[in-house]
Amino acid sequence: MKAYIEERVLESAKYIINNKATVRSCAKQFGISKSTVHKDVSERLIQISPVMASKVKEVLDKNKSERHIRGGMATREKYRRKKE
Predict the structure, then answer these.
(1) CA angle at 31 for the pair 28 and 33, rounded to the nearest 5°
(2) pTM attached to this predicted model
(3) What is the pLDDT of residue 1?
(4) Angle CA 52–14–17, to nearest 5
């Protein structure tokens, strides 16, 4: 694996772990696509650092289990603004 890819993978993983971030927010932070972030943290990170990969997986699993709540809050906010 090329050095710049490895560095990007590690930076993305650190960002997700430290900020409990979503794939979308990580992609926005680093200016890369969600697909790239997902591939980095789900496939490439395991080869580089299995321990860090498991920590990232925990954060992403938690985010996934809560996404329906965030979606509901966003919808509620949208209609609240529309009403005003």
Answers:
(1) 80
(2) 0.83
(3) 82
(4) 75
